[in-house]
């Protein structure tokens, strides 16, 4: 008979809120104790708004809504929580009148986004939002905006994505056009005519409105929250049969998520880990193939560092031939791995009085090569330990539970000292439910390089699933080190980014 390793159950990690109080559920903690850190306590958010005339109107009504109580869809249901109003939760007003209010001409915007050349269409549509924000930051620096609310019509969302297609009757002929292949040719052999080279530059930008806008604003340090009009005014958008254009979550849950994300991006900290391990930092490695690169193997690498406080910083590494078409994996040579971790170390030391971390846990979705391991190790002082951990979703193992519920979140199974499974999704007693629709799959955890206690690694990863400030949820399915890896990678490659761009807080990327 095959011996089965015993299952472990990890206690739900606690989070720290205002007045030094702990709770496991962010909504409970915010309702009872307020946010952990609030530099604007008693004041108001410094919000900038950029929208069409209709978008401004939707935004005005929505601010009034979010300033008041929003009752949950089902009263008495533990997975639904009343939203008591932004100021009641975060002790800060969401002003009815934004500090800056910039109008975008809707006719110009829709004509621009419907151009037949999709690179030109999306680049110019992004410019209608990005250029005024950059201009305001440059000319109105005495009244700084912490967060720009970018309200977009549904047409911009529909047509501002890489796979978007225009109906023939919608197309507006572009005044400037070039094929992607022609543009790539000019990247390698520039034309004698400067205007041709300038036209080709537009094709270095990704055909994705969301990613391109965030990427183009990085060097200007402008944080943005992109809002679809259908999210803040769903009652205004219906199908011909009267049904809602979009199926959204209940209004109270939408309010919780948007309010938490806005508070974080505006400079507040909703919560932090309740039981951090001093001297430890966690790093997520991000790779993204660069379609505008010279070869198909060209890729960009980045790193996200997270501290026990929940603060995150994103570092951009060098671009190069890091992707192998044979193995379909990304790996760095020794020197690039060393340089990337040296950036992380420098940032950590600058915020810790020059001290290096005792332990650095590097999370990735693919394997770590010997060269990468040597490079990471060489970047750290001798008394610092580095551990490389691969984390993947794994559907090979299914666990079923007698009764009406799935296995609980926090269940773990060890396979020796270096491998294990962790169920970061599952039944949550506090909510009396499991939020998924299928039997939950575990995360496969493997200590690939270095030495660490597997129990500690599993607990750390479960803890890091509670640092998603882009929502207000009990726990995420992935640790924050990898949760936004793809999104951060896409923003890093959505536009040409200055090589000297300094490390920026995580809030500029999500």
Structural description of this entry:
- By secondary structure, the protein is an alpha/beta fold.
- It is 31% helix and 17% strand.
- It contains 16 helices and 19 strands.
- The protein has helices spanning 26-33, 53-66, 86-90, 106-113, 118-139, 154-159, 180-188, 194-201, 209-217, 229-232, 251-265, 334-350, 370-379, 454-464, 480-483, 485-492, and strands at residues 7-9, 15-16, 22-23, 47-51, 100-103, 147-152, 224-228, 272-273, 280-289, 299-306, 312-316, 323-324, 329-330, 359-364, 385-393, 411-415, 419-422, 443-449, 504-505.
- Strands 1-16-17-18-15-14-9-10-11-19 form a ten-stranded mixed sheet, sandwiched between helices. Strands 5-4-6-7 form a four-stranded parallel sheet, with helices on both faces. Strands 3-2-8 form a three-stranded antiparallel sheet.
Could you give a quick summary of the protein structure above?
This protein is α/β, with parallel strands linked by helices and about 500 residues long. The chain has helices at about 25-35, 55-65, 85-90, 105-115, 120-140, 155-160, 180-190, 195-200, 210-215, 230, 250-265, 335-350, 370-380, 455-465, 480-485, 485-490; strands at about 5-10, 15, 20-25, 45-50, 100-105, 145-150, 225-230, 270-275, 280-290, 300-305, 310-315, 325, 330, 360-365, 385-395, 410-415, 420, 445-450, 505.
How is the topology of this model organized?
Elements: E1 7-9, E2 15-16, E3 22-23, H1 26-33, E4 47-51, H2 53-66, H3 86-90, E5 100-103, H4 106-113, H5 118-139, E6 147-152, H6 154-159, H7 180-188, H8 194-201, H9 209-217, E7 224-228, H10 229-232, H11 251-265, E8 272-273, E9 280-289, E10 299-306, E11 312-316, E12 323-324, E13 329-330, H12 334-350, E14 359-364, H13 370-379, E15 385-393, E16 411-415, E17 419-422, E18 443-449, H14 454-464, H15 480-483, H16 485-492, E19 504-505
Parallel strand pairs: 4-5, 4-6, 6-7, 9-14, 14-15
Antiparallel strand pairs: 1-16, 2-3, 2-8, 9-10, 10-11, 11-19, 12-13, 15-18, 16-17, 17-18
Helix pairs in contact: 4-5, 5-9, 7-8, 9-16, 12-13
